[in-house]
Specification:
alpha/beta, 305 residues, 9 helices
Amino acid sequence: MSRQQRQALDALLRSAPHSETPPTLAQQRTSFATLMTRPAPGGVTTRRTVLGGRAALDLEPAGAADRGRLLYLHGGGYVIGSPDTHVGLAGELAARAGLRATSVDYRLAPEHLFPAAVDDGLAAYRELLAAGADPRELVVAGDSAGGGLSIATLLAARDAGLPQPAAVVVFSPWVDLTLSGESMRTKEDADPIFTEADLRAYADRYVGAGDRSHPLASPLFADLSGLPPLLVQVGANEVLLDDAVRLVGRAGAADVEATLEIGPGLPHVYQSGHGRLDEADAALDRAARFLISHLDAPVTSRSAA
């Protein structure tokens, strides 16, 4: 999201048109969708479905491999966003990897407080396995809050005795709801999208009076042992930079194969600039290659080859 988009989003979310009455949460979600939604890329077919008891969106690239499956968890601070707002980003990753993907419409706060989102992520992952998906051919990805939720989902799966997927990719993951990273303050002037206050407001709605350091709310503080190979991509110009850096450090210390990519001068979830920003396209290509390289039987993708 550019600074101009951020300013427009602020205007839409904080003041209803022709009224001094603050917008409702439903209006905020609608405004976010209006500004952020990009269509699925050409050649990617979408279909409404249900996974783990929640509405979901299947994305199938033309010529997708018969093997391999991507579970995608969207961002939005656990409060806004949906598979529809992120169909462009999830579809781009799926197309470049040549994998069928499913993006889950997990429950949002404040109507559904933590751990509802984690429960939904786990239910979706559990159903994929129950339906016969080989975990060696499953991969997981998510952005922002969805990145944190991806890690939390896999931790919950591990603790439930379920096998881990082949790999996980997260873009600008939010993994510390206590907001203790130094970049929360040192990068605030450089970040065109978020301030510490913005993220605190999201955390207030998601966790309420609960424990923000709980390992499934803030996976940074979890025991990360046993997780699959992890790729983390983050922009240098974002307040969540230290969430990404510390996550990779803790994962590596737990004997998890972990790779960190920091994009110089780039903002939060810069991958959403695909088709407009060279760095975004290159990052998505690398993410796709990472995912398919860890499948039990790697597929060949024209985009990621």
